[in-house]
Each structure stands twice: as C-alpha cells, then as structure tokens.
Amino acid sequence: MQKQQGFTLVELIIVIVILGILAVTAAPRFLNISGDARASTLNAVKGSLESASALVYGKAIIAGVQNNATGTVTDAAGEIATAFGYPAATVAVMGIILDLDGDDWTVAAVPASDPASVAITPDGTAYTATVAEACQVLYTQSTAALAKPTIVVQSAGC
Predict the structure, then answer these.
(1) What contacts 156, CB < 8 A, 6 or more positions away?
(2) Which of 30, 38, 90, 155 is least surrounded by CB atoms within 10 angstroms?
(3) Sequence ranges of the domains in the chain
(4) Is the Cα dihedral 39, 41, 45, 47 positive or negative?
(5) Are the C-beta atoms of residues 12 and 20 closer than 8 Å to each other?
(6) Which of the two residues, 48 and 113, has the higher pLDDT score?
C-alpha cells in the first residue's frame, strides 16, 4: 500500500492563520497611506504659501512697501499685513492668503518665536516643537529687505 503525500486540512488552516496574523501586524508598517497623504498635502500647502508670498511681494513692490519692516497691501480678500514685502506671520494673514477650510486645518501662532512664525496643521494634529512628532508647515516671516520668508514642511509625525 502506498503512503499518500500532502498536507492535511488542519495543517493548511494553521499556515493560513499564521500568514493572516503576519499580514495584519506587518502590513500597516509598510503601507502608511494616510501618513503619506498628509505629508503630500503639507507639501501642497507649502507650494500655496510660496505662490501667495510671491504675489503679495509683487503687490508690495507696486505699493512701494517692499523694504519696510511693516506695511500693508490691499487684496480683494482684505488688507494683508506685510514684513519686508512678504506676508506677515499672523493667523489673520494666513487665513486671507491661503483660504483654508477651518474644519480641515488649524493655523496657530508659534509660541515665543522670534521672528514671528505660524504653524499650519491638518485636522487632528497640533503644533509641536519636536520635529520627530511634527505634522505641520511652519511659516516664518521675512526678517530683512530682500530676504524671503522661511517655509518648512515637518512631516515625520504624520
């Protein structure tokens, strides 16, 4: 009589259960889709800030306030405070130039920052000074004539 070769149904089920457990625990580490989406959105906000800053600076040149430490330019959305021709780092100014949805984004002043800075964070996150935990765009206003504002994406915590 020949002995049959193969796996029993119990052995197959045990292997499938083990593979399922490995997939559930390991897959989220490799597939961080929501974190990647947030990081990409932060990069889009950075691009919007850069474009808006350039437009405001162009208006400041026309108004002749590009070399002033403080000034304002008029836009269809309202008065925009400037620092050396670029948008000032205030919550009100960011609200005007970015027009972000308040349900999806939070714009907050960075505490005790010199020069003035604001943090733009997606819903569900808040400003943090710890870069490894941050999911935010930091906008630091211009500090001198011909000096562009600093815009930094921190997405390690997304």
Answers:
(1) 131, 132, 133, 134, 135
(2) 30
(3) 40-154
(4) positive
(5) no
(6) 48
